[in-house]
Amino acid sequence: MGGAGWAASVTPEEMWRYEVVGEHPHDTSSFTQGLYFENGYLYEGTGRRGESVVRQLAIETGEVIQQADLQPWLFGEGIAPWGDRIYQLTWVSGTGVMYDKATFEAVGQFRYDIEGWGLTQDGRSFIMSDGSAELSFRHPVSFRELHRLAVSDADGPVSDLNELEYVDGRIWANIWHRDELVAIDPESGLVVGRLDLSDLLASGRPLDPEGVLNGIAHDPSTGHFYVTGKLWSRIFEIRLIPPS
User: Is the Cβ–Cβ distance between 134 and 151 less than 8 Å?
Assistant: First the structure.
């Protein structure tokens, strides 16, 4: 199908805005791959071999409450909770690790046959990205693939989908090396919203070219989002402003 026909079939995207309501310290050695909020704490998964961890953080101080280190040959990726466990993907090993949420002890592994990038869940299944333009929905016990969702906008497939957060019937996603979030309809795969975050860290960006925006967490009690990046010095707490 040509570009004009494709665009005509796509729902118009909503352009969201934001207001920064808080800034919180972030460990500048953390190569952030996954982030989520639960019961007043942030949980972060980080990457790079020999440096990958999953940790529980005090938001206001950045203090590490608990931490588990991945085996040094594994490259940590996205994280998400399910019940009393935390699931952490790894990049190219095809193996993920499950942790006891209370003790941070590793309690098992799970397998998959694609690269591991981002991870979230919608209460029924895990949703996983692999850097492509597709999302993989996974069984919460066996982690077997249930179905795939092709993600697109008016210009065609949207690739490099990375960190994910499911909020109120939408999948919010980082796109690798882009300073924006996209909101994805989990039924159609269409991008239905965008949030431009290019002004969020206007100064003080990491020198490392991989120090990009990555990390989305949502606090349902306030509606606020927490966003950060790999090697960033701050976690930003933002209030989303719906399209007028």
Answer: yes
